[in-house]
Amino acid sequence: MRAHCDKDWPFPKDFIIGSASSAYQIEGGWNTSGKGENNWDWYTHNKPWLIADGSNGDVACDSFYKYKEDVAILKDIGFDFYRFSISWSRIFPTGFSNETSKEGIQYYHDLIDELRSKGIEPFVTIYHWDHPQILEKMGGWVNELMVDFFTDFARLVFQEFGPKVRYFATINEPSFFCFGGYGGAVTAPAWNLTLNAEYLCMHNALKAHAKAYHMYDEEFRSTQNGKIGIVLTCQYFFGQDKNDTVTPDIAFQYDCGWTAHPIFSKLGDYPKIMRKRIDENSRIQGWPRSRLPTFTQKEIEYIRGTADYFGLNHYTSHIAVPVKRGTGEVWENDRGFHQAVDPKWPVSAASWLMMVPEGFGNILRRITKEYGNLPIYVTENGYADHGSLNDHERLKYYYAYLKEMLVAINDGCNVKGYTAWSFLDDFEWRGGYTTLFGIVHVDFNDPGRKRTYKKSAKWYKDLLKCRKLIPVHNYTNNN
Ligand code: GBH
Question: For the whole prediction, is pTM greater than 0.85?
Answer without folding.
Answer: yes
